């Protein structure tokens, strides 16, 4: 499947976020998990926001802007893949439960649950694909739950078994 062209509004918005100084990032970070109406950084946010977004999109962009200062950026995978990279034998049971709760979050719970997930990723030094996150959050309330399914697949699916040249699974036979 060919890679689709990135949304220019998302690209411009994220470029503006990367150009913020430490004080501006801290101001946004203090509003993480809040709605725009509760925010202290509303002026800063609207200076970053691309023109022509509806109210629901503004909330999604705001959530992304407030989480952005919390973790490093990467270019690959969705949030489920990032969480999978942070999973280890010591934390897998609790993290599996947290991911399931995140995937079930509605639009009112999502900012809090997502803030927790991003803080966890930062503590594990795992980066986030912010472009993909913002695009996924814009699809969060779709009835198909496409974003949630993609995150779940990236997090919970077992990696493919290695195959040899004949495309058969290695070590498939069992000695009697």
Structure description:
This protein is mostly helical. It has a single domain, classed as Peroxidase, domain 1. It is 53% helix and 0% strand. It contains nine helices and no strands. α5 runs parallel beside α9 (146-156). The longest helix has 14 residues, at 110-123. The protein is globular, with a radius of gyration of 18 Å. Mean pLDDT is 87; it is low at 166-176.
- Measure the end-to-end span: 43 Å
How much β-strand is present in the residues?
under 5%
Number of domains: 1
Number of DSSP-assigned strands: 0
Share of residues in helices: 40-55%
Label the CATH architecture. Orthogonal Bundle
Give, in order, the helices and strands. HHHHHHHHH
Largest sheet: none
What Rg do the Cα atoms give? 18 Å
Low-pLDDT parts are 166-176
CATH C-level label: Mainly Alpha
Average pLDDT, all residues: 87
CATH structural fold name: Peroxidase, domain 1
Class inferred from helices and paired strands: mainly alpha
Overall body shape: globular
The CATH homologous superfamily corresponds to: CRISPR-associated protein Cse2
The total of helices stands at 9
């Amino acid at each position: 499947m060919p890679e689709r062209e990135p949304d220019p509004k998302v690209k411009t918005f994220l470029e503006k976020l990367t150009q913020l100084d430490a004080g501006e990032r801290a101001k946004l970070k203090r509003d993480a998990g809040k709605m725009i109406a509760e925010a202290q950084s509303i002026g800063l946010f609207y200076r970053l926001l691309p023109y022509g977004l509806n109210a629901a999109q503004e909330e999604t962009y705001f959530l992304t802007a407030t989480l952005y200062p919390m973790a490093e950026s990467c270019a690959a995978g969705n949030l489920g893949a990032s969480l999978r990279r942070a999973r280890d034998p010591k934390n897998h049971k609790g993290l599996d439960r947290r991911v399931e709760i995140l995937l079930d979050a509605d639009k009112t719970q999502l900012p809090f649950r997502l803030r927790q997930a991003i803080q966890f990723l930062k503590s594990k030094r795992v980066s986030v694909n912010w472009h993909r996150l913002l695009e996924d959050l814009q699809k969060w309330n779709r009835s198909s739950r496409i974003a949630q399914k993609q995150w779940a697949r990236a997090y919970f699916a077992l990696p493919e078994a290695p195959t040899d040249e004949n495309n058969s699974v290695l070590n498939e036979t069992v000695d009697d």
